[in-house]
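My current task is to audit a protein record that another person submitted. My question to you is simply how this chain folds and whether the tokens agree. This is what I was given:
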Amino acid sequence: MARTLSEQKLTIGDKAPLFKLQGIDGKDYSLSEFNSKLTLIIFICNHCPFVKARINDIINLRSSFPSNELQIIAINSNDPSYQDEGFENMKYFANEYNLNFPYLFDETQDVAKAYGAVCTPDPFLLDSNKTLVFHGKINDAVEPESKPRVHVMKENIMKLLNGEKLEKPFDPSIGCSIKWKN
């Protein structure tokens, strides 16, 4: 497990790179088809202990808001040959955790590179114009075994939906490094 902090390639106010990726359900998804007030793109994977520790927080986050206010899109950009990764293992992971949002495969890793994603989980919160408004952690738990006390993403989503400004629009996430192809 290579502990990695998220980095800022996209900065607040930048337009999010568009994409079209296949979901584990066999359908193609593009960023432009999501029309909620906020869209949360999270780069995750199947094996990372940080993702496994936070996945229920992400599922609960999606359940906390109506779909016209928040959509979540999970993207796996890991090298599919890495242990427990790849499209079929994504299906197992989604089934095991009962994901309530699309889980997409970035087989070329181009989407992760365009966003500057470097770790899992690496969350990017977009407004209705697909502009980056927050890049950072789901909550304050910095180790997989830590229990969160501050639900950073949920608090920021509520502030944005209420028209409030975020004090800290970049608050690095921590997780396993994305497994890049050689």
